Amino acid sequence: MPYSSPNFRASSGYGDGWFQKNGFQSWRTAIDDVDDAGRWLVKQGIADPNKLGIFGWSYGGYAALQSGVTAPDLFKAIVAVAPVTDLQRLRDQGKVMSDYELRRAFVGSGKHVTEGSPARNVARIAAPVLMFHGDQDGNVAIGQSQFMQQQLQKAGKRSELITYPGLDHYLEDSVARTDMLQRSESFLRQAFAH
Fold this sequence. Notes:
11% strand, 43% helix, alpha/beta, 4 strands, Rossmann fold, four-stranded parallel sheet
């Protein structure tokens, strides 16, 4: 399978004009970039439109899921590792922590919080979803993936959440990483067979 990994708006090193507000407050621009990259791959003949999947980790996992919301017919399978799925939960997480005001300012408030949360827009997702998360993730709480899985199941969507006990955001364990890659390959092959 061909693989492409373009830089997205949450990538660093491109200046404020590229980054805009950030990957969450300017989510629409960031996710449009991801969707445009997928369409470009199809238009160039690099990717088969019936076998175009998306895989992302952390913010990339968020982008993969949110692309399923904004372009439901583009990606035929979504794999998300340790994703943010609900911006309100991200903002409100740790209200008793010392960095709460920074987190609140980072996520912001307004309609982008709901519109930019894949877990609050699962009705639009058409592709099957596979998620992975370590239960000791200190960067993105596992509750983000658990909430997404609950919402997908309520909506009758095809989804699975694989949890790795004792692992953090980076899943730094060769057995877990091997398992994740093998499950991802199997999931993608099955999704593309339809």
